[in-house]
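Lab meeting minutes (informal)
Scribe: AK
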Amino acid sequence: MSDNEMVLVVAGYQDIDTARRDFLATAALVRARQLATRGMILVTKNAQGEVRLEHTGDDHGHTGLGWGTGVGVVVGLFAPVMLGTVVVGAAGGALVDTFTGHRLRRVVHDEIGSALGAGSAAVIGVFPAEHRLAVELHLAGAFLFSLVESGPTDLAELEAELDQAMGKFVPDRTVLPMPDRSFGGTAGRTLADSVADWSMIPGPRAPAGAPNVLIVLIDDAGYGAPDTFGGPVRTPNFTRVQERGTTYNRFHVTAVCSPTRAALLTGRNQHRVGFGSIAEYPGPFPGYTAAKPRSCAALPRILSENGYVTGGFGKWHLTPDNVQGAAGPFDHWPKGWGFDHWWGFLSGAAGQYDPIITLDDSVIGVPTAQDGRQYYFPDDLTDKATEWLHAVRAQDPVKPWMMYYSTGCAHAPHHVAKEWADKYAGQFDDGWDVLREKTLARQKELGIVPPETELTPRPDLFPAWDSLTEAQRRLYARQMEVYCGYQENADWNVGRLLDSLEEMGDLENTLIFYIWGDNGASLEGTTTGSFNELTFLNGLVLDADQQTDLIEQYGGIDALGGIHTAPHIAAAWAHASNTPFQWGKQDASHLGGTRDPMVVSWPTRLRPGDALRTQFTHVIDIAPTVLEAAGIPEAKTVDGIAQEPMDGTSFLFSFDDSIAPERHRAQYFEMFGSRAMYQDGWWAASRPDRIPWDMSPATLAQFGPDADWDPDRDVGWELYYLPDDFAQNRDLAAEHPDKVRELQELWWAAAKENHVLPLMGGMSAIYGILPPMSTVTKFTFAGDVQNIQRGMIPRIYGRSYAIEAHLTVPAGGAQGVVVAHADFIGGFALWVDAEGVLTHTYSFLGVETYRQKADAPLPAGDVRVRMLFEATENRPGTGGHVTLFVNDEPVGDGDLPHTVPIAFTSYSGLDIGRDNGLVVDRDYEDQAPNAFTGTVQRVVFDLMPMGHADEKALHLHHAVENLAHGAAG
């Protein structure tokens, strides 16, 4: 018989007894010379997971074609790992011994053994191709067949072909997508001479026992915020996860939103995946593109290709502004990162009452509550996440899922219902200094920090509480009450999600990472906080008394956090929320910006209430830990593209040993020029002299290309030994200059390897390194366009422009919104009132509101209306004059003494023919969205031409605007 007419058959069985019966029956046919084989073996895996080579067929004698030699060849694959349990005859045993030194000995244990579930088995044999149908018919109890035609003639070929056949049992999970399973049955002319193979149905399967994965990420919250870590915010569900698992008190993030999220979802350092800065500003250097390379596939893609279903919910902040619309491209949207399903918002911030929701690859707009209640995003977020899980389990009760649940809380604006804020009434009347002391005391009592931990000093930048007026204290205390109520509500919603998992029966085998913050608490509220977070971004400085006066216009201090405010806390509260550390968000140099609470549970692996874990861990470690827990390797190629290895280190080892030595021993940090290098307990820190809310060109010029700036010489380095100084209190740089130099050199080497350079590359726009200047000055929107994302509206800032609308007005007149952007605390609208009068409303950040009205109602029929703004000069914030036209005739005018210099909003969109979400003019708030009752044919924005120098200056301004938005993200 020709070697080329052989076939290697692998038959998989779900129970050992059936496999043994079929094997012995087939071997009897060989002995009776009704079948021929070169060798046939039975491999089993018992209930205890022990892999055994039970039969070689040798006990039936050397009958059949080439039986004895074939047995030796096949058995040679499995020796000597099974020799203690192999059942063979004398001749077969001798042949086994011949191959004990061969590299194939590992296959039965590493490949076949790992492929078999407990209590299952496999029959493997080499047969003449003409006997294929007969063999498969006699192995009728098998649930899976895999075969390779043109059977092997020697060990080398047998190894290669067995690998190929076993690929159906043990797919190569390092190459994604995994190829379709081959047909292992027989397709004859009729069903009578055919053998089915259900296992070829497409679709990867996750490894047996792979857990569900839930990653919960809270936004802009600090180490000293949740009461689980000694803070003032009541977090029973953060504690609930802690008590079901364990606590990591030395977990680290990157100090700003987008970079942390990119690192978490890819397992790679943020600069390696283009997120050295924020998504709003794609930069011209590899570490700052805001575009994940295809060579760095994200965790949800890897899991999805390995048999998981993946869903993401909440805040994204990984899609550049200019690709957040229907034109895409969608590579950088959540589904492009591998999520099977997405529901949430793409931007870095959102109003909790009126977010712009994205569903998969479509913007579906601003939702409204269905029962007359006020819409609230955190509640809807949890509802949508739970609905998805219910739908998954309705279809498949066992398929593992991965969920990324990322809240908009505690990012500004701090929106929460009054009853949540009122829970904290009076609790902060003693101020931020007392809060820090109380928090540290509780942290010590809970064992979160070592008992010798010392409180870091409050920077002089933040005033002492005792130095404030009574009015200031009242305002600031209410800010913190709102902030804490906002966070407690987020934790309550996480609890609702956990309740659903428990009801579904999924909680036991769900690996949960609950992370309280993607950076430290945000210091960007400035020293006074704000009733509107956009005031500081636009350079509008309001003291506490001015803030209070404005707040009174929008319902008073008790209304803070409601729909008519967009508040942020005073920076000293954020500093207190990062207790016991220094600084906060944006500061990669110090732990206030980079260390956040994390609790982990997995009941099938982690004991409830297990001991505190103190190993150094980092956000890039999450993805490798998930993969190891699921039994899935890192991908080597995805879509034919070679993959860069993950930078993170799995900390699954610490699940089993709370005091095991840490394995993530070195890590660089960098954000907007602040730097740190960690190695084996030592931490070197270098922080430029810049307060987090100061992104002004004047301040940043000292770090730019025109400055004589040496990062090491001019900024300097501090040095801390964290095992003895948990809070970074004692700078040892003067005592250990050699260690400082060592860590400096390590940082520069890591910076070069990870695309951190050039330093300050994420702020290139500040220094005039700009993308190509757009030549488009006219933008046309059809009448049905809605929810244009904030970053894609025409750039009307600092220049003259016109808005022209082509309308059809019915005979009885019309009213409603023609075009609107943002809302009453920053936005503009061209609309028609109830009397049919054309009106232009411009809200200067809620501080001042300007209106211009026509002198008569609109005529019926096809009407062209126009708002012309003529700027006094071409500069950000310029004043100017507004004229309204109807069919080219001027019908009204008025002055705009100020215009918004940077941006109206951090999240609200632009709508044609209506005003979605919170409205621009509260005169029509009770009619929201106040859709136009005639027809809006189209709206045209026309930016007036300027000289090249002015265009270039505004181009720089817009680039800086994007950067400033993201820095606050």
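Next up, CB showed the second protein from the same session:
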Amino acid sequence: MMLPADVVILVCLVYVLILFAVAFAGDRRARKDQGGWLSSPLVYTLSISIYCTSWTFFGAVGSAARNGLEFVTIYLGPTIVFVGWWVFLRKLVTIGRIHHTTSIADLISARFGKNPVLGALVTVVALVATAPYIALQLKALTASYQVITFHAGAVTAANIPLAPDYSTAFWVAAGLCVFSIVFGVRNIDVNERHQGVVAAIALEAVVKLVALLVVGVWVVSSVGNLPAGAFAHAPVSLLDPEDTFGTRWVTLCFLAGAAVICLPRQFQVTVVENSSESQLCTASWLFPAYLFLICLFVVPIALAGLGRLPAGSNPDLFVLTLPLSAGQETIAMLAFLGGFSSATSMVIVSSIALSTMISNHLVMPLALRFSLVPEASAQMMRSFILGARRASIVFIILLGFLYFRLSGTSEALAAIGLISFCGVAQFLPSLVGGLYWRRATERGAIAGIAAGFAVWLYALFLPSFGDSFVMSATMIRDGPWGLEWLRPHALFGLDRFDSLVHAVIWSMLANVTLFVGVSMATEPTPLARYQSRLFIDVFRRQTEGEISVIRRIARVAELRQIADRVLGTSEALALFPAGTTRDPHAVASDDLISQVEHRLGASVGAATARALVSSVVSSESISVDELRRLADETEQIRAYSAELERNSRQLEAAAAELTRANARLREIDTQKDDFLSHVSHEVRTPMTSIRSFSDILLSNPDLPAADMDRYLRIIQNESLRLTRLLDGILDLNRLENGALGWDSRPFDPEAALDRAMESCEALAQAAHVAMRRRARATKAVVDGDEDRLAQVFINLISNAIRYNTSASPQVTVTTALRKGVYEARIADNGPGIPEGERERIFAKFARGPMPRQVGAGLGLAISRQIVERFGGTLDLASPASGGAEFVLTIPLHQNPPARRPS
């Protein structure tokens, strides 16, 4: 059974005319009432179903017949994304809507500082990765046309190898070019949604769904009693799917999920064509439901084809050959239209999306660089941009046709589609990282995408041509120059996976590793920091408004000239306040410059718009301090909890204050207990000695004079120690309460330091510690008590001597004047003080480890209190050479202003 070729062509032409009419009507309605029902969530969701191409329509059945339930992964991946990753999709769509994003290349380049190199790289990768997918559609269309019009019958045609019909593929490609140009490139503002095209795509979505459901229902009702042979020839994975759920299953789910985000056509319909969040809310459940209906009858059709059709029949064409084998011409024609719709809608939207990317990120930057952009009039400028996009559409579809011509005829539809999926998956790390990781840099994104793309080219894309293009069969089998570890399908000896899984593993590993590694090793540019804040904190920006950190200077007249050239006079006039363009020397505000750049970006992309505006900007600066403040981690945390804080800020503040007060009370109580414990211990030790030796003296009146003298000296020393302890406690208490007063007068702190070093000289000699004096501050004068400062210096120097346990101990003293303060540094080359102990050593009774001599542990606490009474600070630093270094700073004496003579 076959269909007449003229009937098939006539039906296709009528169908195309209907699509033209729908697209015209959609455009006209959109201009009248800004969309109306065309902006409904239903139409939006149906446009997203462009994901279901001829691969899905024809190839899913073929995949089920060959590999069993593996075909489910192509639907499961997008379902997981739309249901489980809805938060990510919401953020992505919101960013696209706010920033008037024109493509995935525009979004990624804008996130990383509007980097033109990154935008061009993403465009090239997308172009090369989409070529196999366009070829797949041409292959499916021509193969299905050949089968249903074959003179010996469709069943016979599907059972014999047919040479590809390149002539038919060429004319189909030409027709798709015309449709894409007429409805996809009518103006240069790509952010004005293509609602006519979307309406036509939505109609095609309904047609392909109805066609597949009709074929499925007919198969189940009319061919339901399948012979046992159908199950006998069915793949093992279809009847016993235990071996299906392995590494390849997970890989295919990942690729399908990545593709529904990263494919240029999917980004176009999901992000660029989105007009409200309600559309995405509906799509989050309706699109998975659509996918479920699409795949509902895949298995029954596959089983029916295996059971009813001759062995060796092409399973990719079961949807067509089953109805024709039973004489169901109408159902077969409807099935052909379903496949026709699936293929044409994909090619149309892909070419529109890619033409925008090529124009904005390849053609325009090169034209600006080499001064090829016409400047005579705004109309010539707009014609140049439109011409570039129309030429790009022809080039894109021609590239797909060339891939189809060069790649041969042996590949199944599913295999060709997966090559594209792996290619566009290289955008995912930079896309997700850019929306959530502030530290990601443009160099990291470029390195990651370039590395992943290179591995994909070598390991999967080029080998897909067989030995007909670039790579010979010997090179694919044995590796270049016979190096087996460089075999495209077994890099570095990894040969346990099939070619697809192998390519995904190595390309994504290279991509993610370089993206993260280079980002950690480089710093983002100030503009990239600013853009990261706008993208990552997009929802907070909506509620709090934007804080501009870019300062630019440009003349209003020059800005107006650029806007006129790109946007046209009437639209440009609306951007500039009345009267601002009359003065040729008037300077534009930062807001006006940003507004013009923002509006230009909707027409030529963010990177090109920045280049255009930068050509008339005479000065540009970015506040790095403000950027760092905006990028602080506290800001990041607050960004995600802004709404909750706004409703409960007062209550949380009160609770936090009570918590802090309670914690402080507990801390004070603990300190009190520790203080009493330390005091008791310190007092008990000398008292025990005094009591013990006094008991000996009282009970032994006949002791030798030498022993009696020695015991009395011990009692005296312990009494002095006890006195010093009590004096220290009293001094510390008075310092803390502000009750210890002294006569404050100007003096030279160097004199106090010299006295302290002289006092500690004997202690240093006894401990064999070398004391060195390096830089000295001259003419320093501070206010306070010289004796108290000397006491501080003695304590710091003596501690440095006691706690220095190195083989060649030394203590270095350095002083200097810095920005109105006197600074003294006492450093040693000892073992240093651990990070967690640096603040504890300033507490009462705290001692460092292994002292040469034991003290009460009050010296540093008293010293800090004294320095703070001077208005200064006493802290601990860690010198690069090791050891410990105490840093003391005291404000210099301020001379009163001289009185004027009366």
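CB comment: The longest helix spans residues 642-699.
No objections, moving on.
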